[in-house]
Amino acid sequence: MNEPLSKLFMHKESLADLSALELLPGYSLRHFKPGDEAVWEHIIERSFEKRITFEEKIGGSPYFQIERVQFICRGSEPVATATAWEREETGEDSGYLHMVGALPEYAGQGLGRAVTLAALHKMRSEYRSSATLKTDDFRLAAIQVYWRLGFRPTYLGEDHEKRWTHIMGLIQK
Fold this sequence. Notes:
By secondary structure, this protein is of the alpha+beta class. It contains five helices and seven strands. The protein has a seven-stranded mixed sheet.
């Protein structure tokens, strides 16, 4: 049986150069409000193809603040989410991009980029100067979005350089 691969890391050195958030007509940005737990879980389950509870990943953490959980809505329906998070190991100056997802039926509309950018703007408003994230090898579309937003690979594991070389060859075609 194969061991699961370790997570890959990416880092954006500066949040000073963020572009303005632009949404397609009919879409809006808002943050989490009480009662959004089920809709967040629905978006994440559809994005990650596994059940993840809001309480486990977000709500039960001392870092949870409703303003950090961003939603892009089509009309009044949340269709994408990302969280401007923090982690002790990234330091006080660095934000942590956490739990980015969009409903698959909205793929190709730039929602991943927009909701990621919304979370990065939130980090910058909290005086974070950089951002870090974790991802998986197979999340090529997400990695491409992160790359275009200025995130670059961080080599933390023995096999990371080889894995990143392979990924970059796939997304830069």
